[in-house]
Amino acid sequence: MGDITQLLDGARGGDAGALDALFSRVYSELHTLARQKLFRESTLTQLDAPSLVNEAYLRLIHQPEIPGANRRIFFAYAARVMRSVIVDYVRERRAQKRGGGVEEVTLTTGEAEAVFDGAQIESLDSALQALERIDERCHRIVEMRYFAGLSFEEIAESLELSAKTVKRDWQKARAFLYDALKE
What we know:
mainly alpha, two-stranded antiparallel ribbon
C-alpha cells in the first residue's frame, strides 16, 4: 500500500495529522495539475495555479469524508473539484455587472491554441453534466483523463476495466461532447 493510500486511510479514520500530511505530500502534484489546467501565459487569466489548489484544498477538507481509496481515485476527485472551482469562478465573473474591465479565465485543452473562454467553460460544464446523466462511466473517464491527466491504463486500473474499453468510452465521450458543444 502506497504512502498516499495510507494517509488517505488515516484521514478517513479521523486522524487530523494524516490529513495534514496528506495535503503536504500531494500539494506539489496538485499544483502541477492546476498549472496544466490553467493557461498561464494568457493575460486573461486571473485565477492562478496556487489559488486553484488552495480553493480546491478548502473544498476538499470540508468534505465529511476524504474521497478516494487510493492515489489515482483521490487525484481524479481532486481534478473534479478543480473543475468545479474553475466553473464557479467563471460563473461568478460573468455574473458581475457588464464591462468594468472584467477579464476571463482560460482553460487549455492541451491542443495548440485551443482555449476556452468563460461562456465555453459553462457550455463544457453543461455538456459534461448531460454526459453524466447519459453515461456516468464515460463522464468519469473524461474527468480522469482530461482534468486529472491520467493515462488510459491508469483509468482502466482505477475503474477496473480494460484499457480498450476505456479508449472506446473516451472516443464515445469525445464525440458526444463535440456534438454538444457545436450546437
